[in-house]
Description:
Blueprint: H1 31-60, H2 71-102, H3 111-134, H4 157-186, H5 199-231, H6 243-250, H7 258-261, H8 264-278, H9 285-299, H10 320-323, H11 326-342, H12 349-374, H13 381-411, H14 417-443, H15 456-488, H16 529-535
Helix pairs in contact: 1-2, 1-3, 1-15, 2-3, 2-4, 2-13, 3-4, 4-5, 5-6, 5-8, 5-9, 8-9, 8-11, 8-13, 9-11, 12-13, 12-14, 13-14, 14-15
Amino acid sequence: MTLTETRPEEAPAAAAAAPAAPTGWLSTADHKRLGLLYIGFAFLFLVVGGIAGVALQGDMATDSDLLGGEFSRAFGLHSTVTPLLFLGPLWIGLATYLVPLQIGAARLALPRLHAFALWLYATGGGLVIAAYIAGPQGSVARFPAAPLAPVEGGADAEVGLWVTGLLTLAVATFLAALSLAVTTGTMRTRGMTFARTPLFSTATLLNSLVTIIATPVFAAGLLFLYADQHFGSSFFGADNPAGQVVWQHTVWLFGRPEIYLFLLPGLGAACDIVATHAHKPLLSAAAARTYLALFAGLSLTAWAAGSEVADAVVLPTYTPLTALVAVPVGLLALLWLASLAKGSPRFHVSLAFVAGFLGLAAFGAVNAVVAAFAEVAGGTAWTTAQVHVVAFGAPTLLAVAALYHWAPKLWGRELSAALGGIVFLLLFGGFFLNGLGSYLLGYDGGPAGVSDYADTTQLNYSRLAAAGGVLVVLGVLALLADVLKAWAGRATAAGEADPYEGLTLEWAADSPPAAGNFDSVPEVRSPYPLYDLRTGGSL
């Protein structure tokens, strides 16, 4: 792939022969069906992780021992499944569906490889969940910051299932990222240089490149872990001082660049959402592209931290270098607000979710400052709150914004604006209350990841966090109802191709797109070709 500013004139992607109409869902290589399958599996795994989360919150918010001896297993299931099997794959599903449309292509560059990645993801996710169902694990399934001791005589079958499932997921993620990177690099229509690529597709490309770099490191760490647990090696043993740092940057989720990649596609999606509903291009698409690239580059600084991150408080921004990821996010936020102020915005529910993202990000930033003055210790519930609010809640709101924004392309109809408002209130309010309860619990010295709080004040804080968790669950159920209704009507839906007066190429295709995506691709002379068509100019 050559990163040039011009596309080869002799073989533009738009001129490629349209693929045959997709056949069965199980054997499909059509990017639209693959994207929907990714989204479907992501929500299925979210339900599993959410059930575990509800059980955890109920156990911590009551005096009774609801989970008995299963608290550790439920904690591991929730903390592993929710980010790794839901949020990351949901972005892959959206990118699989939308990137070919945004770049004027008829298909993915490597459709069969992408289909293989999908089924590897489903298989790996099933293995990980089976590991928790099969038998109890210790700390191995909780992504601890400290390395695990080797097991004499070999680990049990459940640990093997867990490691094998995560390895399968790593391979699936690598292959999907490779497919998306090659598609964005080689399948762009004539005239679409990298400087004219829509910002969601740009973020997807950057996300894919970092994933291609980072995922093999994760896979290597899992192989080291497997060798320690099954063959008695000592990569992470007590006699290997370097094992602490190696563990943190290969196996521990918060010590790897992947933790920031749950947000990067959302930042690109928000750029396109804001521009579309402002009915005017961003004030500077080039600046937005630069900020996205800066965020991607700074994500790699996760590998620069030392062993002190084991006691980190402000996850996932636990060092000055990793904290710098807030800079491009803040600059993008200012760009979005300025573009809305200069445009002619029409309210759409997706904008509410973007605003909710900004609210949660600001909530986390304010508490990070307060925690520094309060000298919050490591290992408290404060860190749990920061993870829920900043690392999971805020990116999830952007993912839901993308679903509501691109629903006409995905299902041929918009999702319900009224129900979307309810979903927003439940999710934003839920994440806020859940974080508030855990922040207060942390300020009071309450430990993280325990099932009982004897202190009445701490128990009340835990109940507040649990109430927020209930609201999040209700929000997810309302979202699922809205999505399932649209999905059920997709076969008969024939919505308006461009209900928003969109700016980028996906809005030139039918809703939902037919096989081959486009009858003809509009000329591309700027990052916003449909805006050019309406105004008779180019940027």
